[in-house]
Q: What sequence folds into this?
Protein backbone atom coordinates (compact mmCIF):
# COMPACT_ATOMS: atom_id res chain seq x y z
CA UNK A 1 0.00 0.00 0.00
CA UNK A 2 1.38 3.41 -0.91
CA UNK A 3 2.27 5.93 1.80
CA UNK A 4 -0.11 8.89 2.25
CA UNK A 5 1.52 11.94 0.68
CA UNK A 6 2.42 14.74 3.06
CA UNK A 7 0.22 17.81 3.01
CA UNK A 8 1.67 20.85 1.33
CA UNK A 9 0.69 24.00 -0.50
CA UNK A 10 2.57 26.56 -2.58
CA UNK A 11 1.38 30.08 -3.34
CA UNK A 12 3.07 32.80 -5.38
CA UNK A 13 1.59 36.13 -4.36
CA UNK A 14 2.28 39.81 -4.95
CA UNK A 15 3.42 41.87 -1.97
CA UNK A 16 -0.06 43.33 -1.74
CA UNK A 17 -1.81 43.31 1.67
CA UNK A 18 -5.10 42.46 -0.04
CA UNK A 19 -3.77 38.93 -0.47
CA UNK A 20 -3.24 38.45 3.27
CA UNK A 21 -6.85 37.29 3.92
CA UNK A 22 -6.51 34.87 0.99
CA UNK A 23 -3.47 33.23 2.56
CA UNK A 24 -5.07 33.24 6.01
CA UNK A 25 -8.02 31.41 4.51
CA UNK A 26 -5.70 28.66 3.27
CA UNK A 27 -3.22 28.16 6.12
CA UNK A 28 -5.80 27.63 8.87
CA UNK A 29 -7.43 24.59 7.21
CA UNK A 30 -3.99 23.19 6.32
CA UNK A 31 -2.89 23.41 9.98
CA UNK A 32 -6.18 21.79 10.99
CA UNK A 33 -5.60 18.94 8.52
CA UNK A 34 -2.14 18.39 10.02
CA UNK A 35 -3.69 18.14 13.47
CA UNK A 36 -3.90 21.48 15.28
CA UNK A 37 -6.99 22.54 17.18
CA UNK A 38 -8.80 25.83 16.55
CA UNK A 39 -6.57 27.92 18.83
CA UNK A 40 -3.44 26.35 17.35
CA UNK A 41 -4.63 27.04 13.82
CA UNK A 42 -5.25 30.69 14.75
CA UNK A 43 -1.72 31.01 16.13
CA UNK A 44 -0.07 29.52 13.04
CA UNK A 45 -2.25 31.71 10.81
CA UNK A 46 -1.19 34.76 12.81
CA UNK A 47 2.51 33.85 12.67
CA UNK A 48 2.41 33.42 8.88
CA UNK A 49 0.43 36.62 8.44
CA UNK A 50 3.01 38.52 10.50
CA UNK A 51 5.88 37.04 8.49
CA UNK A 52 4.21 38.08 5.22
CA UNK A 53 3.51 41.55 6.61
CA UNK A 54 7.20 41.88 7.50
CA UNK A 55 8.20 41.02 3.93
CA UNK A 56 5.69 43.52 2.52
CA UNK A 57 6.78 46.32 4.86
CA UNK A 58 10.52 45.76 5.20
CA UNK A 59 11.70 43.86 2.11
CA UNK A 60 9.41 45.56 -0.41
CA UNK A 61 8.77 48.82 1.53
CA UNK A 62 5.01 48.49 0.94
CA UNK A 63 5.41 48.16 -2.83
CA UNK A 64 2.60 45.97 -4.09
CA UNK A 65 4.34 44.38 -7.07
CA UNK A 66 7.03 42.31 -5.38
CA UNK A 67 6.91 38.52 -5.57
CA UNK A 68 6.54 36.38 -2.45
CA UNK A 69 6.83 32.61 -2.79
CA UNK A 70 5.12 30.79 0.04
CA UNK A 71 5.46 27.11 0.79
CA UNK A 72 3.79 25.39 3.74
CA UNK A 73 4.26 21.67 4.28
CA UNK A 74 3.72 18.93 6.76
CA UNK A 75 7.05 17.82 8.12
CA UNK A 76 9.24 17.19 11.15
CA UNK A 77 6.20 16.21 13.21
CA UNK A 78 4.41 19.43 12.47
CA UNK A 79 4.47 22.25 9.93
CA UNK A 80 7.21 24.06 8.05
CA UNK A 81 6.69 27.50 6.51
CA UNK A 82 9.06 28.93 3.92
CA UNK A 83 8.89 32.43 2.43
CA UNK A 84 11.14 33.59 -0.38
CA UNK A 85 11.30 37.18 -1.62
CA UNK A 86 13.53 39.33 -3.79
CA UNK A 87 13.22 42.54 -1.83
CA UNK A 88 15.83 44.21 0.34
CA UNK A 89 17.69 41.81 2.56
CA UNK A 90 16.73 41.88 6.21
CA UNK A 91 19.13 43.69 8.50
CA UNK A 92 19.87 40.97 11.05
CA UNK A 93 20.72 43.57 13.68
CA UNK A 94 17.24 45.06 13.33
CA UNK A 95 15.30 41.80 13.48
CA UNK A 96 14.24 41.88 17.08
CA UNK A 97 11.20 40.95 19.05
CA UNK A 98 10.23 44.13 20.84
CA UNK A 99 10.16 44.28 24.58
CA UNK A 100 6.72 42.97 25.42
CA UNK A 101 4.40 44.50 27.94
CA UNK A 102 5.74 47.98 27.26
CA UNK A 103 3.81 50.54 25.29
CA UNK A 104 6.12 50.61 22.26
CA UNK A 105 4.50 49.02 19.23
CA UNK A 106 7.71 48.07 17.38
CA UNK A 107 8.61 44.39 17.13
CA UNK A 108 5.20 42.98 18.00
CA UNK A 109 4.98 40.95 14.80
CA UNK A 110 8.41 39.41 15.22
CA UNK A 111 7.63 38.64 18.83
CA UNK A 112 4.45 36.83 17.79
CA UNK A 113 6.30 34.76 15.18
CA UNK A 114 8.97 33.69 17.67
CA UNK A 115 6.41 33.02 20.38
CA UNK A 116 4.23 30.82 18.17
CA UNK A 117 6.82 28.96 16.10
CA UNK A 118 9.45 26.63 17.57
CA UNK A 119 12.19 27.59 15.15
CA UNK A 120 12.66 30.73 13.03
CA UNK A 121 15.57 31.49 10.70
CA UNK A 122 16.32 34.18 8.13
CA UNK A 123 18.78 33.49 5.33
CA UNK A 124 20.09 35.48 2.39
CA UNK A 125 20.42 33.06 -0.53
CA UNK A 126 21.19 33.45 -4.27
CA UNK A 127 17.44 32.94 -4.86
CA UNK A 128 16.47 35.73 -2.46
CA UNK A 129 15.66 36.28 1.18
CA UNK A 130 14.48 33.07 2.81
CA UNK A 131 12.38 32.88 5.96
CA UNK A 132 11.97 29.43 7.44
CA UNK A 133 9.84 28.62 10.47
CA UNK A 134 8.67 25.35 11.90
CA UNK A 135 6.39 24.17 14.67
CA UNK A 136 5.85 20.71 16.07
CA UNK A 137 2.45 19.39 16.99
CA UNK A 138 1.66 19.44 20.68
CA UNK A 139 3.70 22.52 21.57
CA UNK A 140 1.92 25.67 22.68
CA UNK A 141 3.44 29.12 23.38
CA UNK B 1 -13.33 45.62 7.69
CA UNK B 2 -16.26 47.87 8.54
CA UNK B 3 -16.23 50.70 11.05
CA UNK B 4 -19.25 52.53 12.41
CA UNK B 5 -19.24 55.28 15.01
CA UNK B 6 -22.08 56.54 17.17
CA UNK B 7 -22.45 59.09 19.94
CA UNK B 8 -23.51 57.94 23.38
CA UNK B 9 -23.67 60.89 25.77
CA UNK B 10 -20.21 62.48 25.86
CA UNK B 11 -18.59 59.36 24.41
CA UNK B 12 -18.12 57.86 20.98
CA UNK B 13 -18.58 54.12 20.53
CA UNK B 14 -16.53 52.72 17.65
CA UNK B 15 -17.78 49.41 16.27
CA UNK B 16 -15.19 47.42 14.31
CA UNK B 17 -16.20 44.42 12.22
CA UNK B 18 -14.15 41.97 10.15
CA UNK B 19 -10.38 41.65 9.73
CA UNK B 20 -7.87 44.18 11.08
CA UNK B 21 -4.53 43.62 9.37
CA UNK B 22 -1.72 45.42 7.56
CA UNK B 23 -4.12 46.42 4.78
CA UNK B 24 -6.99 47.67 6.93
CA UNK B 25 -5.41 49.01 10.13
CA UNK B 26 -4.66 52.46 8.58
CA UNK B 27 -8.43 52.94 8.15
CA UNK B 28 -9.02 51.99 11.78
CA UNK B 29 -6.26 54.38 12.86
CA UNK B 30 -7.87 57.25 10.90
CA UNK B 31 -11.30 56.55 12.40
CA UNK B 32 -9.96 56.49 15.95
CA UNK B 33 -7.91 59.66 15.50
CA UNK B 34 -10.93 61.35 13.95
CA UNK B 35 -13.05 60.47 16.99
CA UNK B 36 -10.59 61.13 19.78
CA UNK B 37 -10.37 64.95 19.73
CA UNK B 38 -14.16 65.36 19.52
CA UNK B 39 -15.20 63.70 22.78
CA UNK B 40 -13.97 62.96 26.28
CA UNK B 41 -14.24 59.19 25.85
CA UNK B 42 -13.83 56.65 23.09
CA UNK B 43 -14.94 53.05 23.61
CA UNK B 44 -14.10 50.46 20.94
CA UNK B 45 -16.26 47.39 20.48
CA UNK B 46 -14.09 44.45 19.36
CA UNK B 47 -16.86 41.83 19.46
CA UNK B 48 -17.22 41.54 15.68
CA UNK B 49 -13.51 41.51 14.87
CA UNK B 50 -12.83 38.19 13.19
CA UNK B 51 -9.06 38.61 12.97
CA UNK B 52 -6.49 41.08 14.28
CA UNK B 53 -2.74 41.18 13.77
CA UNK B 54 0.10 43.17 15.32
CA UNK B 55 -0.63 46.22 13.16
CA UNK B 56 -4.09 46.41 14.76
CA UNK B 57 -2.66 45.98 18.26
CA UNK B 58 -0.02 48.63 17.50
CA UNK B 59 -2.78 50.99 16.35
CA UNK B 60 -4.60 50.60 19.66
CA UNK B 61 -1.35 51.18 21.60
CA UNK B 62 -0.62 54.33 19.61
CA UNK B 63 -4.12 55.73 20.13
CA UNK B 64 -4.05 54.84 23.82
CA UNK B 65 -0.76 56.68 24.28
CA UNK B 66 -2.10 59.79 22.55
CA UNK B 67 -5.40 59.62 24.43
CA UNK B 68 -3.45 59.73 27.70
CA UNK B 69 -1.53 62.75 26.46
CA UNK B 70 -4.81 64.43 25.50
CA UNK B 71 -6.42 63.53 28.86
CA UNK B 72 -9.06 61.43 27.11
CA UNK B 73 -10.44 58.03 28.03
CA UNK B 74 -9.81 55.19 25.58
CA UNK B 75 -11.25 51.80 26.48
CA UNK B 76 -11.94 48.47 24.79
CA UNK B 77 -14.81 46.06 25.24
CA UNK B 78 -16.27 42.85 23.82
CA UNK B 79 -13.03 40.98 23.17
CA UNK B 80 -13.72 37.62 21.54
CA UNK B 81 -11.49 34.62 22.37
CA UNK B 82 -9.66 35.05 19.04
CA UNK B 83 -8.89 38.72 19.71
CA UNK B 84 -7.99 38.08 23.34
CA UNK B 85 -5.54 35.40 22.18
CA UNK B 86 -3.57 37.98 20.17
CA UNK B 87 -3.57 40.51 23.02
CA UNK B 88 -2.24 37.80 25.33
CA UNK B 89 0.43 36.68 22.85
CA UNK B 90 1.74 40.24 22.69
CA UNK B 91 1.49 40.79 26.47
CA UNK B 92 -0.03 44.24 26.03
CA UNK B 93 -3.48 43.58 27.45
CA UNK B 94 -2.49 45.09 30.80
CA UNK B 95 -1.97 48.48 29.14
CA UNK B 96 -5.68 48.81 28.38
CA UNK B 97 -8.88 49.19 30.33
CA UNK B 98 -10.91 46.27 29.03
CA UNK B 99 -14.61 45.59 29.70
CA UNK B 100 -17.07 42.91 28.71
CA UNK B 101 -20.00 45.08 27.68
CA UNK B 102 -20.62 48.55 26.28
CA UNK B 103 -22.54 49.51 29.40
CA UNK B 104 -19.62 48.58 31.64
CA UNK B 105 -17.19 50.39 29.36
CA UNK B 106 -19.21 53.60 29.41
CA UNK B 107 -20.08 53.51 33.09
CA UNK B 108 -16.51 52.91 34.15
CA UNK B 109 -14.90 55.75 32.27
A:
Amino acid sequence: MSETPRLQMKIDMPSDPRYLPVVRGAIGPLAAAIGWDEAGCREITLALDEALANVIRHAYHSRRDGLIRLECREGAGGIEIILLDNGDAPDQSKICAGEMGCDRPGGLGTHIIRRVMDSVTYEITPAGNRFLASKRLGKTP
Amino acid sequence: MKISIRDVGDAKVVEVEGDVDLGTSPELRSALYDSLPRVARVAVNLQAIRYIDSSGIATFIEVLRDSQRMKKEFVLFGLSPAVLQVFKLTHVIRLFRVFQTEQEALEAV
Q: What stands out?
A: Strands of chain B lie at 2-8, 11-20, 41-52, 73-77, 97-99.
